[in-house]
Amino acid sequence: MQLAEGKKIYFLSDFHLGAPDHASSLVREKKIVRFLDSISHDAAMILIVGDLFDFWYEYKSVVPKGYVRLLGKLAWLTDNGIPVHFFVGNHDMWMNGYFEKELGIPVYFEEKDYEINGKKFLVGHGDGLGPGDRGYKFIKKVFRNPVCQWFFGILHPTMGIGLANFLSRRSRAATGQTDEKFLGEDNEWLIIYCKEILQKKNYDYFVFGHRHLPLDVKLEGGSRYINLGDWLRYNTYAIFDGNELTLKTYEP
After folding, report:
1. Rounded-to-integer distance, Cα 205 and Cα 222, Å
2. Residue at 1 is within a domain
3. Is there a domain that residue 2 lies in?
4. Residue 193 has what pLDDT?
5. What span, in angstroms and rounded, lies between the C-alpha atoms of 7 and 130?
6. CATH, residue 173
7. pLDDT in tens, 142-183
């Protein structure tokens, strides 16, 4: 992909709409819509790198209610020729065609390569990558299993969504403040993962979410690891102008 003059690529992640309650989620949703409005004039492509929702499950004929402002804005962007790509996160991995059919947004379940203006990117949500976290990696396999998804789907939406929201709150309480601290290059699993990948293939940029902490870490060979932070605390995103990828904060 070659960017036209004045056009940019935007990366953002971890909105967690729905958390911790409807009122605060709605404020955050309106802010995100304003941000998308502000970039629509120069966006060549927008990549949402997971956990747009705190929970999302597509039943056969039902999706979770709410989020109409954001979903409408995403539809407006794609209707006006601005490609939007979505990478599922650990909170919204249960996608099953709604985004593709209703919004015209391709959905990716694994990391994806991009080459833009000669720069090579590896993009993904980041959950389950790198060493450690074996418990989550096992749970992820269970959640991704079609049979397990089918069993969840036969629950009434009130029960299924209620159970998912309860488990999400418990997970957040168990995590506590660990997402707010940089653990050092030797202990950050995604940095370790990036270094392992660089032994096999060169990338200019690794762009991930999931970590909830804005990070810009230099790696060997001039490569960089960018973590996009979140919109719960930081309102951060990354922008590629054709030459350089920069981590920024939205301050309306």
Report:
1. 9
2. no
3. no
4. 95
5. 33
6. 3.60.21.10
7. 666 677 766 666 777 677 666 666 666 666 555 555 567 888
Q: Does residue 231 carry a pLDDT above 80?
A: yes
Enumerate the β-bridge partners of residue 216: 226
Tally of structural domains, the chain: 1
Our CA angle for 87, 74, 114, nearest 5°, is: 40
In terms of residue numbers, what domain contains 155?
8-249
Residue 195 neighbours by CB under 8 Å, 6+ apart: 219, 220
Residue keyed to tokens 């989620």: 25
Q: Is the peptide bond before 20 cis (omega within 30 degrees of 0)?
A: yes
**Quick check: is 177 in a domain?**
yes
In a domain, 109, yes or no: yes
- H-state helical runs in the chain: 22-39, 68-79, 98, 134-144, 146-153, 157-175, 189-198
Read off the pTM: 0.89
